[in-house]
């Protein structure tokens, strides 16, 4: 592993495979935590389904990248690089990895047409092993790349941009209520970010079927999906640009950072926790999960032109210590997901910044406890 820069390359084969195994386990724990939040009433069934869908997409993305770099550090006959991860800020792969993967997906069919099939490659490997008595590294590399492109063609991965999808909820007072969700991989912090918006539609044609408004809404939301923008800014801009769409609630979920004593450089309390825990491989990590929530408080009428008016949302800000104006949210909640041993050290150290953080303690057996 090269550790001179914030973004490092996992050039060691075994380190790379440990990294992918770690994230496979973390994504599985994340779906279980979402289930606990549903049981507690923090999230609804529909919201959990959306979040689990994005967690599954992240898992497929990690699977694809693990195939791409399956032979990292081996002599494959060509320089292929190594997985770049953000070792100081997020612990996730650098955004450039997903951008390259998205480009590869567009060329996947062409690459596969020029490659031998899986069966042919395996037959060639057997021939090299039995006749030449050597390790067929180059053929293994070719097979890993074929499997990588096949995985990309299956779709359902987490891309740099995951455009809005919309789900009908109910009709109330002759208005349609929808829930939209979309996601991005924030290139500024190298983290996946998931958005949900609950809105009312007073338009003549239902939003998903409206060939004029729906493309405009999708383009508008993707352009505004920047981590540096406050939810208040995004919601007010949407409210003002679409007179017959009324955003009632906007949420943003930040998945990460992921901290690991083996792969990231962290300072402060979380660094002390992981270094003192001395947890075995697979349990030396902690994942931060942050939810921002902005809710409409009331509606006011605003004149548009000479003879008409439209509704505008007045959003409720967090009243405590003026934080709402700073964060642009009604509520912000941070959680941390971590295995048992790091949690025990966290409780012993009891750092001030973690006292108000919800803690989800997970085990390999699938058990989740909230503290």
UniProtKB/TrEMBL annotation:
Full protein name: Uncharacterized protein
Organism whose genome encodes this protein: Pseudosulfitobacter pseudonitzschiae
